[in-house]
Amino acid sequence: MTYSAQAQTLEQGDTLDDPRAFRRCLAQFSTGVNVITTQSDGKPVGVTANSFSSLSMDPPLVLWSIGRGSRSFSAFTTAKHFTVNILSSEQVDVAQGFSSRAEDKFAGIDWHPGSLGSPVVSGVIAVLECETETIHDGGDHVILIGRVKRYARFPGNALLYAQGRYAVAEDHPNLLIQSAPGSNGTHDREASSPVEQMRFTTLLSFVGMYILSAFDEFRQAESLDLPQGRILFVLREGNALTLDEIMSQSYLTRPSVEDGLTSLIERKCVTSRDGVFSLTASGQDIFATLKTQFARFDAEELAGIPKQNLKIARGVLQTLHARLLPSR
């Protein structure tokens, strides 16, 4: 079966032929990011998961899954309780820490035991404390169903997992524009166009969306998916990094980095030595091509705008960046 009706098919095939491509397809579905915790032999245990889902309101049930190869597999499958900590958009470092291979994943983490004993992580936007109800076979994973005994919700925005990387939820610009004066379907003689009446941050969202779309075209022209493009970026100009360092600098999940590095090594764009990765000459050439294409795009789109205006705009953006950048 083919999908020729689609505008562009990036990948297709039998799931058994290329498991990594199948995983990239699954990553097209965006999810939240959670740290699941429990206690084992008196010690806290935690893993990052995006497999969480609500299951039932009556009774109150949720589910998630853990891989049979996880070092925490035994702890969770024998535990009588677990806690779902739903991460905020400012907790990428927490997500990365609990998905790392560190011996003590709770080092530097502010937490306390919940009412059932499983750790509750500070700074999250929601907590679900659960008793383990049932465990089911799920292929190379097992599915854990928990009965929610206590819950708590806190202010903040959700951290998302989308297309292999960490992301944040934003109102779509097409929805935001509807709230701008003069864009409600009525005639407004004072407004020559909805864009002129748009809030500044809404306009930024529109421009950012268009720029990202343009860069995606450049990246896809080089047959790179988003994680591969980010890996090339962090390894640019002679950088030599470990897998964990690439995760930290690219805001990608471990599976996405592992898949991206494997693909780039197969394409001879990346080389590995003693657990340290760097670009080959071919990888540097591809990055240079992307850099040139985006520089050309930059020059074309900014052409004709007075330098003084650009200087002022840059100053505004730098100020906003400093104010809004989450502390790590």
Descriptive notes:
By secondary structure, the protein is an alpha+beta fold. Helix content is 37%, strand content 25%. It contains eleven helices and 15 strands. It has a seven-stranded antiparallel sheet with strand order 3-2-6-9-10-5-4. A three-stranded antiparallel sheet has the order 1-11-12, with no helix packed on it. Strands 13-15-14 form a three-stranded antiparallel sheet. A hairpin with a 2-residue loop joins β14 and β15. α6 packs antiparallel against α10 (281-302). The protein is globular and about 65 Å long.
Brief write-up:
The strands form four sheets. A seven-stranded antiparallel sheet has the order 3-2-6-9-10-5-4. Strands 1-11-12 form a three-stranded antiparallel sheet, with no helix packed on it. The chain is an alpha+beta fold and 328 residues long.
Q: What share of residues is helical?
A: 25-40%
Distance between the termini: 47 Å
Oligomer: single chain
Structural class: alpha+beta
Shape: globular
Radius of gyration over C-alpha positions, nearest whole angstrom: 23 Å
- Largest sheet, if any? 7 strands, antiparallel
Tally of alpha and pi helices = 11
Write the layout of secondary structure elements.
Layout: H1 19-26, E1 31-32, E2 34-40, E3 43-49, E4 53-56, E5 61-67, H2 73-78, E6 81-86, H3 92-98, E7 111-113, E8 119-121, E9 126-138, E10 141-153, E11 159-162, E12 165-168, H4 173-176, H5 194-197, H6 200-221, H7 226-234, E13 241-242, H8 243-250, H9 254-266, E14 270-273, E15 276-279, H10 281-302, H11 307-324
Antiparallel strand pairs: 1-11, 2-3, 2-6, 4-5, 5-10, 6-9, 7-8, 9-10, 11-12, 13-15, 14-15
